[in-house]
Amino acid sequence: MVSSKTTKTADSLVHEVGVSRSAERLPGEPDEGQLSRWLEFVLDCLNRQPSEVSVRIVDEQEITSLNAQYRGLEKATNVLSFPAGISVDEVEVLGDIVICSKVVKLESDQYGRSFTDRYAHMLIHGLLHLLGYDHMEEAPRVRMEQLETDLLLRLGMGNPYE
What we know:
The protein is an alpha/beta fold. Helix content is 43%, strand content 27%.
């Protein structure tokens, strides 16, 4: 597992991101350090209190099993979020993001996006779910998509909805 911490001197703000995997790394897949930096960047942009998040990179079989167990959908998906919603010693434990690199790669090809851009989008999407954002209804979906777009643009990536 890779662990990363980012510190802001003014507020002494620290975010901790743990990344682990059970799937082999795909060619061109962002490394664990990059995933941590993206999430830390988003948490900083959103002015979150010191936070902790876990990322697990899995294969299609594992994501299918989790999707069936927790959402009743027996198919592979790109990302799942499991909010914790607790605080320990003034650190907000946000929860777990489970991402399937192979599905993200297939989608990047399907949508004509770079693997890196699609990966960042799905990771940010998962984090926003941990923070309580949702896209089941129109107004919250529009807010979530706008925030995803703004954050990705700040990371130097394109609008995923164009």
